[in-house]
Amino acid sequence: MATNPRSMIAFHMFHWLIFTLIFVNIHGQSTANIDKKWRLCVVKSEHTSKRIASLCPKLAESPIQCVIEPDRFGCLRRIIESDADFTVLEPEELVAIRNYYLYKVLVTNELKLIQYEAERFKIVAIAHKSVQRIWDIKGKRLCHPGFNTVDDWSTVFSTYLESLIIRKECNFNMTLFENRVHALSNFFEMACIAGPWSSDAIFDYQLKSKYKNLCAACENPSSCYNTDKYYGREGALLCLTDNVGDVTWVRLDDARVHFKAEMIDTQDYKFLCPDGTTKPLIFDQPCVWISKPWQVVVAASQSAVMIANLMNSMVNTTHCWKNSLLQLMENYYVTSANIDALEVPSDYLSRFPNFVSAYAQSGCRPSRAVRWCVMNNLELYKCESLRDASIVYGVEPTINCFQQTSESCLKGVQNGLMDIFLARPENLLEARMRGLKPIVHAMTNVKEEVNRIVAIVRVNSPFKIIKDLKGARASFTGYRSVGWNAFVTLMRNMSSRNWDCSDAQAVAKFFKNSCVLDWNNNKELPANLHSLCKKDAKRTNDDLDAFDYLTSGTVDVAFVNLKVIESKTEAGDFYYEKIDHRNINRRPKYRILGPTDTSHGVPYLLAWTTLGSIVAHENITDLRRQEIYSMLLEMDKLFGKKFNGQTPAFSLYGPYDGNHDLIFPDGTRNLQLHGHQVLRERNYDEIVENFTKQEVCSAASTWMSHFLGTVSLCIIVVIILNRLLNC
């Protein structure tokens, strides 16, 4: 049986009376003995971290405590799972859950910049008076504020007008975004849609070159940049009132200010209405197409009444902790909702004309959705949250998430059952051998944070260069690991024709004894490649485990990721590290080997790798690759490190429910198109490409040995038969 909201409110009112009695001293007396704390979930970002560090401790003597999350969707999950009592959300997050968790989350208050405005803004269409009805704008000139997400203007708002008046195109010879641009180009004679059309600069240039009429009404049609006079909210209105365009799509508050400031005769213009008619341009009687709600305070249903009353008590407050609380809520003026108006998200959003319907536009059939393969339950949950966030913030195409093992994900992409998978560096060779190719790479902004593969020896070792290691003992993190592949590639290049075609045989001949950590998974490896491995040893981190073999004296050289080792050693342990006053008396313990003596210089890298690579099948079309790349770039723009606003809706590269290294490796800062990496020399992608070619040699060698073995057996049989016959 459904719960009656009014009975719930009465139930909570009873608890609120108890709360009031307990905190009767909330307006001045000491609150040191507070037993109940209302948990406010706040989002920590580069913009809010200082504020949180300063203000949350000031709530110690208040009935509030801070719960910290990296994004707003994280705070929403906290509310749903009863790990927090209230938080601040954008209306887009309410759209994402409007059909779920009924009565688990209630809207208690709005956070307003302008106290008496019912909504954040309204969007209208304004045209010259010659336009008699909405359909008359076909073939006219459009003044558009731009495609890119700025302030509160999102893709959903920028596309709403065209989604209602222009027939949707689903040409499979174009990306979803180009279909939209193509439809606009055909509908209007010309337009000014200045600013970036795509986060991919090359694709942006290609589209603007192809659909020049959509920049023709700009002051500088050849560039169509965001520096154009007719770019943005104010620019779109100037475009209309300068008589460059016939119709514009703008915020009502901007139009009201513009017409008044420029003293423009409103009788020369009309409102276009969603029903197809027009109305005189009387700003008090607008035809509104869509309204944007304010930010809201939402609370867990069991706490909603108390939170609403608490928020109501803070209007015009002078209490220190209450001021701290308001500042944590992004310094907005708080207007309290009436207790009787506590609503579930869907009911609250229904107050705002067409806001929810803007998110219900039909997609193309068959679906263009991107099937994203992830490796475990936590990655699946994060991927599904990313999907929800992407939908309400207008990212296309949408994603569908599937969970498999890394091996199954690679097979799935290979067989066309999946579209993309984020392969870690250790999976990249297998991915390439399966016919997969990177689209983008997960990158860090700091060179020292990339994976750097090196050969480490002890400082007193007799080895000076890589070739000196002949006959030594070695440890590798695994067969066909990044370190293994980098070493094999280097030695092949240095040894010319003398290097064995089989990499396993070549390494086995080069080193006397070794430990290849995953030898159990490769039973056919020569015995000396795992003769030094400790049986039944507990595995922790492959790089640290391989390094332990070196520090214990079991091996002479370890092929490992220097980034990992540096995080576990002390400053001054390596020759190349700077010595300062804290370690001036320390003596280096380790050296890095290269093809030449590098004991006192910059460490020689056998290879460097990105943090990971999103791979797809190499045979997908250029159009599909572009569509996926554009989708990933849009996600990076909205949910990456350079998000718009104070806090991110979703943290693409951050932790999820306190768990790190999910989907994207920790340390990821941005995505780079494959082939555009800043570091070029000893790039692991090139090593993988060369290594893949060597597989032909190895396969041919294996076939030849089987063939020669068969021939030899035949010869032996013939000899025996001849001898028997002679008897």
TrEMBL record:
The keyword Transmembrane applies. GO terms for cellular component: early endosome; extracellular space; plasma membrane; recycling endosome. GO terms for biological process: iron ion transport. Pfam families: Transferrin (PF00405). The chain crosses the membrane at residues 703-725. CDD domains: PBP2_transferrin (cd13529). The keyword Transmembrane helix applies. Keywords: Membrane, Signal, Transmembrane, Transmembrane helix. SUPFAM superfamilies: Periplasmic binding protein-like II (SSF53850). Residues 1-28 form the signal peptide. Residues 38-357, 370-693 form the Transferrin-like domain. This is Transferrin-like domain-containing protein.
